[in-house]
Amino acid sequence: MFVYAYIDPCNIPREILIEWFDGNWGHRSYWGEDLLQSSPRTRVGDVPQAGSWIRLAVPAATLGLSNQAVYGVSFTVYGGKVWFDRTGVVRCAFTSSSTQPVLDPTDFVWFDDAPPAGVSLSGTWTWDATQKVSGTQSMLNSAGGGERWFGFSNAAAITLGENDILVTHALIDPCDPPREITFWWYDGEWNHRPHWGEPIMHTGYPGTSMGPIPAGGEWVQLEMPARGMNLANRPVWAFELWTHSGRVWFDRVARKTCVAPAAAQPSLSPTEVVWFDDAPPTGAVLRGTWTWNAQQRASGTLANMVPPGGESLEHSFDGATTPLTVGADDVLTVYALIDPCDPPREIMIGWYDGSWEHRAYWGENLYTHGTPGPGRYNMGPLPAPGQWVRLEVPASAVGLAGRSITGISFYTFAGKATFDRIGLEPGSSAALRPQPVQTTGSRARWSKRFRALGAVLTAASAARPATPPTSSLRPPRRRPSARA
Fold first, then answer.
1. What is the pLDDT of residues 162-213, one digit of tens each?
2. Which residues of 356-370 are buried (b: 16+ CB within 10 A; e: fewer)?
3. Which strands form 359-363's sheet, in the order they lie side by side?
4. What's CA 298's distance to the chain center, in Å?
5. 15 and 84 co-located in one domain
6. 25: which residues sit within 8 A by CB, 6+ positions away?
7. Cα 214 from Cα 101, distance rounded (Å)
8. CATH number of the domain that 293 lies in?
9. Domain range for residue 388?
10. 475 domain residue, yes or no
11. In terms of domains, do 299 and 151 share one?
12. Residues 122 and 64 in one domain
């Protein structure tokens, strides 16, 4: 099922919801935040790129519309402005991946083509020689609704180091993608559960969201950092792999040792106003633990690093006597480097102007500080790891147009990130206001015209009609299916 959409870049919605009617309206997919909360519904991904026509596509099987006649469609947006056009269906047929990924010869391959020797198998193992990333065959979790899984226990243990990553390759049928993929890893407890897609299996069990279901049609590498799963320096000797609906092939489970190289310094805008770099501004009262890093930096000699150390880390300052003065159409900027060996699930930045209710976040919506909108504004997925990325937040989106900022806070939810070179990119009104005091020399200049993209939230809606079995050989665990 597809719909073409054009999103106004000056008025981006927070959610797009599309519903199909086959006698009832129970076939819904959405992009962005889960604000409209119609049920049942399937999250497809983030709100797409604004400013050009985009095809929004959802497999009929995902919507429960396989072999069904569709009589109606409904479009709903939460805030913003969107045009819709050309709605229909594309007949889908998938045979095999057209490319093979490049494999790292330094990986320690735990198993490929067959389970490790001497293990106790559980679930349903289905081998398929038609699809493979290496060796002669791969494991298939076949098409069909509901949950499917396979696993083993009592393997010779592998120990994961601080920078190790468990990896496997997955090939998702683009005509029938799953709603969720979940791994269970056992080190004496089954408390290490990374998952992709909707959290619909094993609710109530601890888990770590790794993001949306990957794109289908090509082999992709699924990466699970040991630190992010609390498996650093731990032995693992059992595993299970679960999918909900859809069809997926899996191949080559391995351990990779990750070494994050020094990231290249980014190209810097000559018009940026730099508030602080290498040290907090004059008068700042520091709170939390500030760690400075001389090896990874976007500019200057030092960057502000948030080391790994639990699910929620925060540090901040307030009281700066050299404030950052913000114009009506300025864009707040922070350079960020996400550790590719241990990416966080969410990063959040807050600005202080007498109130901390000015926050933006990237990644999952895990922190509950503030309310959606200026107090907790969604800026989309995490930046690409391993490279410096300039985070850009329209001042108007977080309620800071025309304000003076005297504090800032940095949050990371698990993982590791580094921040540097905090300031703003001036907008078209820059020449009409005084230049703020700078503490980093003459780096700041004023720009030519620069249009900031802000979000105006105006509700709009289109009208529409009314345990696997256990044994003495298997580590004991109560299966989710056994719960009441």
1. 889 999 999 999 888 888 999 999 999 998 999 998 888 887 776 888 878 8
2. bbbbbbbbbebbeeb
3. 285-287, 312-318, 407-413, 346-352, 359-363, 377-378
4. 23
5. yes
6. 19, 38, 74, 464, 465
7. 15
8. 2.60.120.260
9. 273-432
10. no
11. no
12. no
C-alpha 472/C-alpha 484 separation (Å) is 24
- State whether 64 and 129 are in the same domain: no
Mean pLDDT of 149-155: 95
Q: CA-CA distance, 248 to 430, in Å (whole number)?
A: 53
Tokens describing residue 7:
């999103």
Percent of the chain with pLDDT over 70: 86
Residues 188 and 84 in one domain: no
HEC secondary structure over 232-284: CCEEECEEEEEEECCCEEEEEEEEEECCCCCCCCCCCCCCCEEEECCCCCCCC
How many whole angstroms separate alpha carbon 61 and alpha carbon 146? Answer: 12
Give the integer Cα–Cα distance in Å for 335 and 388: 6
**Judgement on whether residues 279 and 252 belong to the same structural domain of the protein:** no
Instruction: Say which residues have a Cβ less than 8 Å from residue 268's Cβ, sequence separation at least 6.
Output: 298, 299, 421
The two structure tokens encoding residue 479 = 């299966």
> pTM of the full predicted structure?
0.62
Last residue in a domain, options 59, 91, 123: 91
Q: How far is Cα of residue 243 from the mean position of the Cα atoms in its chain?
A: 19
Q: What is the pLDDT of residues 368-414, one digit of tens each?
A: 888 888 999 999 889 999 999 999 999 999 999 999 999 999 999 87
Rounded to an integer, what distance in angstroms lies between the CA atom of residue 395 and that of residue 430?
13
Q: Which pLDDT tens digit goes with each residue over 416-441?
A: 899 999 999 998 544 333 333 333 33
Work out the burial of residue 314: count CB atoms within 10 Å of its CB; fewer than 13 is exposed, 13-18 middle, 19 or more buried. Answer: middle
Q: Is residue 38 part of a domain?
A: yes
Among the listed residues 474, 424, 437, the one whose alpha carbon sits nearest the alpha carbon of residue 119: 474
For residue 265, is it within any domain?
no
Residues 241 and 363 in one domain: no
In a domain, 480, yes or no: no
The tally of domains found in the chain comes to 3
Same domain flag for 26 and 169: no
CA distance 196 to 219: 15
